[in-house]
Please model this.
Amino acid sequence: MASIFTKIVAGEIPCYRVAEDEHHLAFLDINPNAKGHTLCIPKKETDKLFDLSEAEYTALFAFSRRVALALEKAVACKRVGLSVIGLEVPHVHVHLIPLQSMQDATFGKKEKLSPEELTALAAEINSHFT
Model:
């Protein structure tokens, strides 16, 4: 059965798209730890990070780096944190979280943003994506 992320890739479920290339997609987390919390995924559904081939693994992190650099330009933060947990959705995903404090990385604090704010934020991050 296709994961929710595979359905997002297929366009069956909408998302706040931040960046994309042939093999990857980045979109805003709709239940973010902090403003700008972004998920980077391979378009190919793979359950676990270490099930990716070495080339796929390297490509995902290269893509995530490009997204993180754009995120830093769009959202004021001390740094962009990276987390790979992946228990909720059986599809590899990298969390990029703009950090002001370590609490932003704990997944215990959530930020509320309106659909309009999410749309504008996705466009702003995308404008810095190279």
About this structure: Strands lie at 17-20, 24-28, 38-42, 79-83, 94-99. Helices lie at 4-9, 54-74, 115-127. The chain has a mean pLDDT of 96.
